[in-house]
Amino acid sequence: MDKPKSIEMPALSVSELSQKLKRTLEQQFDYVRVRGELSKVARPGSGHIYTDLKDENAVLKAVCWKNVVPSLAIQPVEGLEVICTGQITTYPMSSSYQLKIMQMELAGQGALLKMLEERKQRLLAEGLFAPERKKKLPFLPKTIGVITSPTGAVIRDILHRIADRFPTHVLVWPVLVQGETAAQSVIKAIEGFNAATAHRPDLLIVARGGGSVEDLMPFNDEALVRAVAASDIPVISAVGHETDTTLIDYAADVRAPTPTAAAEIAVPVRNDLYYTVQTHQQRIAQHIFALLRHRQSELKMLAARLGDPQRALESIQQRVDLAGSYLRQNMMRLLHVHQQRLQKINLQAHSPKNMLAQQSQNLAHQAQRLNRVIALTVQQQQQVLKHHTSLLESYSFRKTLERGFALVRNGDEQPVTRAEEAKKQAALHIQFADGVVKTVPQT
What we know:
single chain, alpha/beta, five-stranded mixed barrel, five-stranded parallel sheet, 12 helices, 13 strands
């Protein structure tokens, strides 16, 4: 092979070559559908999805931009076999090519059922299908919210069945029941009914007719299943025919085999209620009449045993009159007895004047006794004082002076007890028993 001449072939920059390759690939593979198994599914904070599509011999990198992710029919899960539709493009920074995903679908019904089973088990483990979460349906709802397509036989069957059984107020929220946006449409309806303040339904029915597994896929959407489980209003799921099962059937409070059956579950038969009420009313009336007859019979028997009330009243009146007569006689006799006892009592001895004179005499006697006690006490205290006075005088310094001693004081009348101290004084006062002598100490 001849070497290319440099003059004939201009030099390309790496970026220029990368752009040429990119345009060539995008023009050649403008729109492709690729089947493979998802591997290394990554969801960074940017919102994009990065993954690999692989088979037994090759691996193809793929990317799904965040503005496309919400419109995907299924959410990428590692190990799932899918068919991706999109464009082939390059990533110049790593000299690699990749598939820009625009649509994603399951490769076959087996893979679809596998994905649904895995989703069911995961939601079951979370407790979304637990029986204790189920809410009790109202016996007679005043308002029923129906979430379904506004056209078709389903809404007609439900309205007709409710009207036949027990006519009540029905609010219809029209939604899509098939396609990529159907699940989000039903979610908005459920949340809208729950957020309503006026005419808020007491019961919700989510319904659509039968179809293939692919047709019913919106009702297997995880976000819709969570919305049904989170509804504060009880939900009846009526999707498809009796043999069709979707994930919202497990999350709903009650699953109806058909939309018509949902209407039958929602309301009772009014005529049956009328019949039941009338039957109970007749039984109650019969029971009351039987009870009245029984009570009348008992009253007649008691009246026969009681006798004539007038005669019984006359007998009681006579007993009352006789008791009154006995009462008056006893009162007069008791009064006479007390009068006699009162006359026997000497009122003079208990007069206030005599009692005052006696108390005065007692007071005078007590005063005499008190005076004698006071005089005796004063005499005793005088003798004690005299004794203490004599004792005090015997210890007086004057008695000492009388025995030949003298008391020496200085000019300030302070006692002087030492000779050296006496020599220092200007004058001394010497007190004897009969008088005081003033002297000047000699040095």
